[in-house]
Amino acid sequence: MPQLDVDALRARFPALAIEQDGRPVVLFDGPGGTQVTDTVIEAVSAYYRTSNANHEGAFLTSQRSDAIVEEAHAGLADFLNAAHPAEIKFGANMTSLTMHFARSVMASLAPGDQVVVTSLDHEANVGPWRSAAADRGVSVQTVDIRPDDVTLDVEHFDRILHERPKLVAFGWASNAVGSINPVAELVRRAHEAGAMTYVDAVHAAPHLPIDVQAVGTDFLACSAYKFFGPHVGVLYGRREALDALPTYKLRVAEDRFETGTGNFEGWAGALAAVEYIAEVGRAYGADHAGDFPTMEGRALAMHAGMAAIRAYEMPLFGHLLDGLEAIPGVRVWGVTDRARFAERTPTAAVTIAGVTAGEASAALGRRGIATWAGNFYAKGVTESLGLEPEGVLRIGLTHYNTAAEVDRLLAELSEVAGGAAR
């Protein structure tokens, strides 16, 4: 089975044809939101052309819409390997879903109970729990990070678990520095301590296969616009865990967690995004199918596709890391040991001596290269590393990036680091 035909896949992303000053733009801004495929654009457009209606009408367009809604839940269930489509809940975005969900969780707790968050996480998996906990008199503990490699301090995690928290919220992967947590092991330890688990998989979803049944988490959230789809949030909840929670909904609403009329066109686009990943798996994932012996059909194709994507991305990241480490004044934060690449995503967090992250990102932007600068709502990371207020320059690779684009970035960044930021 061949490796990814990146040129063929790039042709599926219309935004990659954009030019600036006569040259193609280079988009390393994926951690803030990836580009979408032609089929995602068509799915959203087709919904408006042929299926635009509210839920459960006794007429054609509503029936078409309801069929898309049902299939979108099934598609995302396959993408996450949920046991049933009813375990998938859509929302505006991961942050809004978590805000809403935290209120339900806290309603099941009592003053004096405890929840746990981490310094490695995006604020969307920290702030909602802190706010809801304050309303209920529930205490919040924070797990530290290891500053040497910017990974979670698992020993501190274990010490906090001895206090028997009711819920532990942590990320699958850091959106700031790319560190990947040992999710299944953290879930196992939390469950042994009697805690529920809520995993933020927003940054992990575009880079590696996610199997909620294998890791055993109670809840997991991600965002379709980070894995080649539209601005839609997705929540997985193990059926028994969802059923045990109180909810805040209209009394006439059928679903206990999807409030109000859904963004049905966005759900159609999310379905098209995961169908694209399944196409990648069917074309390029045969060598990885054996990694998922319990799966079949579309779920297997999606997970093999994500494995094929990761097999392409990490060598490309190695090429980027080699080049970054050769530039005087550049520091890459996080896991840089090539033998530990399984512990990270292809996302580089960089600081440059004498040049702020904002200056570097702006200089690259003028040269047609998209990156991000700041803390990316992962302020706990940059605070722990003493990098506030400037934060870091973030370079995020995806499977539609190429070695030639990496080389162009490295050449331009060398000039920026040498004093050409302005």
What would you say this structure looks like, in words?
This protein has 422 residues and is of the alpha/beta class. The protein has 2 domains: 146 residues, Aspartate Aminotransferase, domain 1; 235 residues, Type I PLP-dependent aspartate aminotransferase-like (Major domain) (Aspartate Aminotransferase, domain 2), CATH 3.40.640.10. 41% of the residues lie in helices and 15% in strands. The strands form 5 sheets. Strands 4-12-11-10-9-5-6 form a 7-stranded mixed β-sheet, with helices on both faces. Helix 4 packs parallel to helix 5 and helix 11 runs parallel beside helix 14. The chain is globular and about 60 Å long. It starts with 5 loop residues before the first helix and ends in a 5-residue tail after the last helix. The model has no long low-confidence stretch (mean pLDDT 96).
Brief overview:
The protein is α/β, with parallel strands linked by helices and 422 residues long. The protein has helices at 6-10, 38-50, 60-80, 94-107, 127-136, 154-161, 183-192, 212-215, 239-243, 264-284, 297-325, 357-366, 379-384, 403-417, and strands at 19-20, 23-24, 26-27, 88-91, 114-118, 139-143, 145-146, 151-152, 167-171, 196-200, 219-223, 233-237, 330-333, 347-352, 369-370, 372-374, 392-396. Strand 9 (167-171), helix 7 (183-192) and strand 10 form a beta-alpha-beta unit.
